[in-house]
């Protein structure tokens, strides 16, 4: 037996309670080493780079799985080990790169030559069973990526949007506009009409029903149909009031329609996809409570769920994330590779960059800057936030920075190096200048109007900007599909090349944190607002529509 993963100490936000009861059942997952991830990355870049002769030639489900599948010898060796220990497993991913099984703590301790213990997450009071190190047979080291959750001390997922602020009068905000000019009311309240005027987003209905937009839902945030109808009736009166979303569930997820159970995040995400991506089919994917104990199971499950679909959505919008340092490196890389596989199949994956400026997903004390995940994965598109309208400025909460896990990808090297050269020695030593830089783009994220539990009011955060940007991508995909063209798929090589000039550059503001002013927004790409905010007409031209 050789130690396979280990951490030197208990993370500061957790405390040891004591040994885990030996008869407690553990749900474990085993990640097998994938067959050819490096070749899959080459394919992803080929099908996602506009100058490539293979641009748009996305992989089929079976083709992507062939890259992700473990080698037969890995499967055989791991199966034999588990069979020798009388452990029955099930395949937990379409490519067979994940296995799952349940065994009591006593057996897990013996299998992995470890001692599982109970730990308490101080801030939430949630208990989890973890270990600081585990071992596997030496002859399986090259076949097993990791066993999960073992050393993964991930704080429970938090609701990302800022507090809902009800409108004092209770009345609906202004919506009508008589010209293409941005209404003055948009300076204090952002509505679909504001975004249509500000970014040139068309109100004409989409026509291609096979072009779909999916929204992730976690931590029992439920999307309410009644709130959506009130939103559509008042703020998109040109759409049929019955316009709504469809529902998919996994991990015992649900979406009850009792108004008092509506969630601000879920309402926001569905209202600004249904309400901006006019008549694009929208699906709300409600992931069950398994994700609440902080092991990322919901994040793993939703991506494997989408990879298992033959006709997966062309856009996935997720307004949740973590501090990168809370995610074990092996787990972060594994999940990032799954995003790569979905991107190679033609799905644009967008994540909010976070709301803590340079201090991470949410504001906190820190000395070194805190990158966020999944924004630091180079195979997703990270969305920051802006505020104001004349002109737009960086929202001070907009998370941005540089990954400590993932290297800077070639597609953004020129843009990032230009920023770093201009930055000079400011904040030197507080971030990794050679890491994957984020966000990539941004959109409005302050004073965004929603309907929550029957009331009009405002929320803020990169949770707002992400569904807005996802809707724009979905509308572009609709226009492409109407011409018989492929969807945009993985966006970043397109964004940093052909489409780089299709964004309004944000040149003022910053994202403070860690007792600093953070990074400045400046001409060109910056780690506050990325390339800037979208110009729909220019993006349409860049996409060749």
From TrEMBL:
<keyword id="KW-0843">Virulence</keyword>
<keyword id="KW-0964">Secreted</keyword>
<dbReference type="GO" id="GO:0004252">
    <property type="term" value="F:serine-type endopeptidase activity"/>
</dbReference>
<feature type="active site" description="Charge relay system">
    <location>
        <position position="269"/>
    </location>
</feature>
<keyword id="KW-0732">Signal</keyword>
<dbReference type="InterPro" id="IPR000209">
    <property type="entry name" value="Peptidase_S8/S53_dom"/>
</dbReference>
<dbReference type="GO" id="GO:0005576">
    <property type="term" value="C:extracellular region"/>
</dbReference>
<keyword id="KW-0378">Hydrolase</keyword>
<keyword id="KW-0106">Calcium</keyword>
<feature type="domain" description="Peptidase S53">
    <location>
        <begin position="189"/>
        <end position="545"/>
    </location>
</feature>
<dbReference type="InterPro" id="IPR015366">
    <property type="entry name" value="S53_propep"/>
</dbReference>
<keyword id="KW-0325">Glycoprotein</keyword>
<feature type="binding site">
    <location>
        <position position="505"/>
    </location>
    <ligand>
        <name>Ca(2+)</name>
    </ligand>
</feature>
<keyword id="KW-0720">Serine protease</keyword>
<protein>
    <recommendedName>
        <fullName>tripeptidyl-peptidase II</fullName>
        <ecNumber>3.4.14.10</ecNumber>
    </recommendedName>
</protein>
<keyword id="KW-0865">Zymogen</keyword>
<dbReference type="GO" id="GO:0006508">
    <property type="term" value="P:proteolysis"/>
</dbReference>
<dbReference type="InterPro" id="IPR036852">
    <property type="entry name" value="Peptidase_S8/S53_dom_sf"/>
</dbReference>
<feature type="binding site">
    <location>
        <position position="524"/>
    </location>
    <ligand>
        <name>Ca(2+)</name>
    </ligand>
</feature>
<keyword id="KW-0645">Protease</keyword>
<dbReference type="GO" id="GO:0008240">
    <property type="term" value="F:tripeptidyl-peptidase activity"/>
</dbReference>
<dbReference type="GO" id="GO:0046872">
    <property type="term" value="F:metal ion binding"/>
</dbReference>
<feature type="binding site">
    <location>
        <position position="526"/>
    </location>
    <ligand>
        <name>Ca(2+)</name>
    </ligand>
</feature>
<dbReference type="Pfam" id="PF00082">
    <property type="entry name" value="Peptidase_S8"/>
</dbReference>
<feature type="active site" description="Charge relay system">
    <location>
        <position position="463"/>
    </location>
</feature>
<feature type="active site" description="Charge relay system">
    <location>
        <position position="265"/>
    </location>
</feature>
<dbReference type="InterPro" id="IPR030400">
    <property type="entry name" value="Sedolisin_dom"/>
</dbReference>
<dbReference type="Pfam" id="PF09286">
    <property type="entry name" value="Pro-kuma_activ"/>
</dbReference>
<comment type="function">
    <text>Secreted tripeptidyl-peptidase which degrades proteins at acidic pHs and is involved in virulence.</text>
</comment>
<dbReference type="InterPro" id="IPR050819">
    <property type="entry name" value="Tripeptidyl-peptidase_I"/>
</dbReference>
<feature type="binding site">
    <location>
        <position position="506"/>
    </location>
    <ligand>
        <name>Ca(2+)</name>
    </ligand>
</feature>
<keyword id="KW-0479">Metal-binding</keyword>
């Amino acid at each position: 037996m050789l130690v396979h993963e280990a951490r030197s100490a208990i993370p500061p936000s957790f405390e040891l309670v004591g040994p885990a009861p030996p008869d407690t059942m553990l749900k474990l997952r085993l990640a097998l080493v994938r067959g050819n991830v490096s070749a899959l990355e080459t394919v992803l870049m080929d099908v996602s780079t506009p100058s490539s002769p293979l641009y748009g030639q996305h992989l089929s489900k079976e083709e992507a799985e062939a890259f992700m599948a473990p080698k037969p010898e890995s499967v055989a060796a791991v199966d034999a080990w588990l069979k020798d220990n009388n452990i029955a497993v099930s395949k937990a991913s379409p490519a067979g790169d994940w296995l799952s099984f349940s065994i009591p703590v006593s057996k897990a301790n013996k299998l992995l030559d470890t001692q599982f213990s109970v730990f308490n997450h101080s801030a939430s009071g949630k208990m989890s069973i973890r270990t600081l190190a585990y071992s596997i047979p030496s002859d399986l080291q090259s076949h097993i990526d990791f066993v999960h959750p073992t050393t993964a001390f991930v704080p429970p997922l938090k609701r990302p949007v800022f507090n809902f602020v009800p409108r004092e009068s209770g009345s609906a905000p202004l919506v009508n506009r008589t010209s293409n000019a941005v209404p003055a009311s948009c300076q204090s309240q952002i509505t679909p009409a504001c975004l249509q005027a500000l970014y040139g987003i068309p109100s004409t209905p989409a026509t291609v029903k096979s072009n779909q937009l999916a929204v992730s839902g976690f931590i029992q945030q439920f999307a309410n149909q009644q709130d959506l109808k009130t939103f559509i009736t008042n703020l998109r009166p040109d759409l049929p009031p019955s316009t709504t979303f469809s529902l998919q569930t996994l991990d015992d997820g649900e979406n009850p329609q009792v108004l008092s159970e509506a969630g601000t995040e879920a309402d926001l995400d569905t209202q600004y996809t249904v309400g901006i991506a006019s008549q694009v089919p929208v699906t709300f994917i409600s992931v069950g409570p398994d994700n609440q104990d902080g092991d990322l199971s919901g994040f793993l499950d939703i991506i494997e769920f989408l990879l298992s679909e033959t006709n997966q959505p062309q856009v996935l919008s997720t307004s949740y994330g973590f501090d990168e340092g809370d995610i074990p490196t092996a787990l972060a890389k594994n999940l990032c590779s799954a995003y790569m596989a979905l991107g190679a199949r033609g799905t644009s994956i967008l994540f909010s960059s976070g709301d803590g400026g340079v201090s991470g997903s949410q504001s906190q004390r820190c000395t070194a800057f805190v990158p966020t995940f999944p924004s630091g994965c180079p195979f997703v598109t990270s969305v920051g936030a802006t505020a104001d309208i004349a002109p737009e400025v960086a929202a001070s909460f907009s998370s941005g920075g540089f990954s400590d896990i993932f290297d800077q990808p070639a597609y953004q090297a020129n843009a990032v190096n230009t920023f770093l050269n201009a930055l000079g020695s400011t904040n030197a030593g507080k971030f990794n200048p050679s890491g994957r830089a984020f966000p990539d783009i941004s959109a409005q994220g302050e004073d965004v109007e929603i309907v929550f539990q029957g009331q009009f009011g405002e929320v803020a955060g990169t949770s707002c900007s992400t569904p807005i940007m996802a809707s724009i991508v979905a509308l572009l995909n609709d226009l492409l599909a109407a011409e018989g063209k492929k969807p945009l798929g993985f966006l970043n090589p397109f964004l940093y090349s052909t489409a780089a000039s299709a964004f309004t550059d944000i040149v003022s503001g910053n994202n403070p944190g860690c007792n600093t002013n953070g990074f400045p927004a400046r001409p060109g790409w910056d780690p506050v607002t990325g390339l800037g905010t979208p110009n729909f007409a220019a993006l349409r031209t860049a996409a060749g529509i």
